[in-house]
Write a structure and sequence with these properties.
The protein has 2 domains: 62 residues, Spermidine Synthase, Chain: A, domain 2, CATH 2.30.140; 220 residues, Vaccinia Virus protein VP39 (Rossmann fold, 3-Layer(aba) Sandwich). Helix content is 30%, strand content 31%. The protein contains 10 helices and 13 strands. Helix 1 packs across helix 8 and helix 3 crosses helix 4. The longest helix is centred in the first third of the chain and has 16 residues. The protein is globular. The two termini are 26 Å apart. The N terminus is likely disordered.
Length: 302
């Protein structure tokens, strides 16, 4: 769930006291977490990394004081970006993760036995090492898996390499908001590179903000995706520490089938039963419900 890059100034947070963290996510709105123990507090080349235990939300990582991942609700994010497209695809062998330095998404992808490689590309190796040390509850298996490949590199540049062309069945963009190094992970050039790195029939999934507070992200992302992919769309999850209710996740298909069709849902349900996946959030019923959009969100889809 970690977006592993700096966040925009409009989302700046501040510490209310030594034993609490106040995150001012949106103008006029904030959330506060009571801290019981600080485990890491360090500055990398790119951002300020803090990891701490809390009273209500388990273990938390913030980057530049913005919450990225918590041990309590990471599954609502990681499961839905990963299992939903993988089960509908049915034959995912190669996965790339853009960002995702906490490895929670990688851990979910590696639960699929047919996967041959999971390549995680995060610009900040210090985030990866901090999460290796302090988030074993959600990533220990991934770090030990021989199929796991970790690249401390710029994901935008990595996608443009010849070795990335037509390589991946699934690309998961666990990207930040468009600021600093993260700016390159938005816009037409990024989506063009995603398209080039996908195999025919492959899928890409993206976090697309919280529509209650960031409605423009859905409309802008889908407008751009439509220029490069014959099929794309939106589905939802709920991540409590990403304040605002529903979180929007967008998808794109390279010459394949749309996600969320009756045929796709039936295929995913059968694949889930065969795989015997153990998930804290995902199940076939949640999969189907994720495509049911409230009217006010549906109006944001171009």
């Amino acid at each position: 769930m970690a977006r592993s890059q700096p966040q925009p100034k409009k989302k700046a947070a501040h510490k209310a006291a030594d034993d609490s963290q106040v995150e001012r996510l949106h103008q006029g709105y904030a959330q506060s977490m009571e801290i019981t123990k600080v485990l890491a507090d360090e500055q990398s080349q790119f951002q300020h990394i803090r990891i701490f235990d809390t009273v209500a939300n388990g273990r938390v990582m913030t980057l530049d004081d913005i919450v990225q991942v918590t041990s309590r609700d990471e599954s609502a994010y990681a499961d839905m970006l990963t299992h939903l497209p993988m089960l509908e695809h049915g034959k995912v062998r190669s996965v790339m993760i853009v960002g995702g330095g906490d490895l929670s998404i990688a851990d979910e992808a590696l639960k699929h036995k047919n996967v041959k490689e999971v390549v995680l590309v995060d610009i900040d190796c210090q985030v990866i090492e901090a999460c290796r040390k302090h988030f074993g509850e959600i990533n220990a298996k991934a770090f030990k898996d021989k199929r796991m490949v970790i690249e401390a590199a710029n994901a935008f540049e990595y996608l443009g390499r010849k070795s990335s062309k037509n390589r991946f069945d699934l690309i998961i963009a666990d990207r930040p908001d468009p600021v600093g190094p993260g700016k390159a992970l938005f816009g037409e050039t990024f989506y063009d590179r995603i398209n080039g790195a996908l195999k025919k029939g492959g899928y890409a999934t993206f976090q697309t903000g919280v529509p209650f507070y960031q409605p423009w992200e859905i409309t802008e992302a889908l407008h751009e995706l439509k220029r490069f992919f014959p099929k794309c769309g939106l589905y939802l999850t709920v991540v409590p520490t990403y304040i605002g209710g529903f979180m929007a996740l967008s998808w794109a298909s390279k010459g394949g089938k749309a996600l969320g069709t009756p045929e796709g849902l039936k295929k995913a349900k059968a694949a889930y039963k065969r795989s015997k996946l153990k998930c804290d959030y995902y199940n076939p019923e949640i999969h189907a419900a994720a495509f049911a959009l409230p009217n006010w969100i549906a109006k944001l889809v171009p």
